[in-house]
Design a protein that fits this description.
The complex is a heterodimer of chains A (392) and B (310).
Chain A: E1 4-13, E2 16-26, E3 31-35, H1 42-50, E4 57-62, E5 65-66, E6 77-80, H2 92-103, H3 107-120, H4 136-148, E7 154-158, H5 166-183, E8 186-191, H6 194-200, E9 203-208, E10 211-216, H7 218-223, H8 228-233, E11 240-248, E12 252-256, E13 260-262, H9 268-275, E14 279-284, E15 289-292, E16 300-311, E17 316-321, E18 327-332, E19 343-348, E20 354-356, H10 364-367, H11 382-391
Parallel strand pairs in A: 3-8, 3-9, 6-7, 7-8
Antiparallel strand pairs in A: 1-2, 1-4, 4-5, 9-10, 11-12, 11-14, 12-13, 14-20, 15-19, 16-17, 16-19, 17-18
Chain B: H1 8-34, H2 54-65, H3 67-100, H4 103-118, H5 121-132, H6 137-144, H7 154-157, H8 161-189, H9 192-200, H10 205-216, H11 218-234, H12 237-244, H13 256-265, H14 272-296, H15 299-304
Helix pairs in contact in B: 1-14, 2-3, 2-14, 3-4, 3-8, 3-11, 4-8, 5-12, 8-11, 11-14, 13-14
Classes of the chains: A alpha+beta (392), B mainly alpha (310).
Chain lengths: 392, 310
Amino acid sequence: MVEVELRGVWKRFGDFVAVKNVNLRFPDGKFSSILGPSGSGKTTLLYLIAGIYKPSRGEILFDGEDVSRLPPNKRNVGLVFQNYALYPHMTVFENIAFPLTIKGLPRGEIEERVHSVARMLHIDELLDRYPHQLSGGQQQRVALARALVKEPAVLLLDEPLSNLDALVRLEIRGELKRLQRRLGITTIYVTHDQSEALAMADLIAVIHRGEIQQVGSPEDVYRRPRNLFVAGFIGMPPANLVKAAVTRTPTPCVVIAGGGEYCPGEPLASKLEALGLEAVVAAFRPEDVVLGEHPMEDYVSMEAEVYVVETLGRENLVTLRLPDGQAVKAITSPLLNPRPGDKMYVNVEPSKILLYDPDTELNIEAIEAAPAARPVSLAGSPERRRAAQEED
Amino acid sequence: MPRPRLPPPALFLSLAAFLVLVFYMVPLILTLWASLTPVRNWDIAQLRQFVGAENYRRLFHLIRFDPDVSTVVKTTIVFVAGTLTVNVLGGLLLALAAFIIEERASLGFRLLWFLPRMTPVAVFGLLWYYFFYPQGTLNAILLKLHLISHPVNWGQDVLPWGPWSIIIFVNGLVGVSYGMIIFYSAFKAIPKDIYRAALVDGARLRDLVFRIMLPLTRWHLIFVTVWQLLSLLTTYAHLFVLVEWGVVEKWHGMTWALYVFETAFGSAVNDQALASAAATLLVVVGIGLGLLTLRLMGFERELGAIRGEL
């Protein structure tokens, strides 16, 4: 098992910069996820780690050893592709055995290892079949078996669940997580699906336009989005982002349309003051909204008009309009069923509201903790954070 | 009354059917017919006489007892086997090279190998005439290197492998680009992720070629082999030029197809009946060899087992 580290990694394809100055550390034996929308550079990042691409600049280290120039076959990584990339002319057995056959291992050992990994993934009945005779879920297990049979130091997964039916996806998701715990392989999982990342990963790195936006635990990324992109990307639906004015009376208060007023305490108030902002973006999650007919005490309350109600079964998703036209989404109990046009109050606990600088798009709370100019290095250990800061 | 009209499928097929009928079926039947008559010197009237298998008896007699005709048979076997090997294996190697080198260079590389095919037969023949004739480039080089002490007439005097090598070389050069183009596009058609998966699985170039690329392009290999086999059996344009200009000795440069041409149209013989019999034999042998090759390479097996999307 190894720890994977990227230091100042860039990747260009001609004029296009796919990956920009990425500094990341994937802890040994942990399940990490690279999360980003399509075209964000997440697969490029994975291929860089696998050795399929070579970085234009920067270093990739496995346990401190620079592997940047090593070809994929010298890195001992297992990679599961989005479309599985099974060899169509080989049986399941031959597919799984391929990495071992190439190494020239004795027949007996190959058989033993293939059978043992096939049993573990419940595909030992399928060994004589060809890939085209398998269902998506079965193909996916074969691809996983092929990646695991060589006992890789790092397991890389490129959107492995995205081609599966919803039910099979849930089933394999759970299994994958259990398997990773059991084997303790350093695993890096690329996905555009935040629910997968949130459910499975010990650590999430959010990437957008080739740049790492935030690194942290699922809780961190969900509760304390470092910038507006992360806030607007994570969550189902993502956080409400509402433009608000800053007044000074003389302490700074944030005024949202519909009568919402939020006067933050320390240290946020002085940060707001120090930045001298006239406007901010207030973010709060739809599930943190309490919809009611009246404003609630100790809550920030905004009057809004119900625009549309979507019935999701377990809950209702209500979209409202603030008086200035900005949309706000709220998740409510299915029992609460307002009609479009109804006037209601959007009540949010002050502690659930995050404020963002509209220019830098950074979380104001986080600005001092991590200076705005530098890209995030991976949270990881405090030593690493200090070391990263000293480099600046 | 409305005019009777062809149903659309027949309408669409009619042009192709017409061409096949006029330029393939009719000549084939005429050839077969002529091979059963004593027609010579374009005396069309003789087409009405019927001599049974007489021409075939003559043909097999010639093959057995005329040393020139038996040389033609040997030349044909060596030429087809040799050139086919050059075309298929050479095509594979060139396709691999074109696949491995960088994209822009690859285009130039493929164009270069396509030149012989695009060059008119006479021009290409002339080029190799200058290369192989006794005072030509080849001898000049060999003399410079002191590998020979006096000019050698490779195509006329070094029998049988001198002329055989030359005809295989020249036709191989023309034919090799065909396999290259087919194999190259077949390699390109294998999804990139398959190559990536193999690389991550530890494959070296040798493993990629023998375990991934060749097995996945088996179909193309069968096609190119059979196609080239059949065209080599019937090709004679380049050979005609090489023989006519004396680059190679007549009988060691003549394959069965050229023999048919010479027998029918050559000024010396003009025996259309014998030529028709020889042509019919070539068609039968061609069909037989084609089917045999398909069987040997497992064509039906491939048809039976369609393996997923590729």
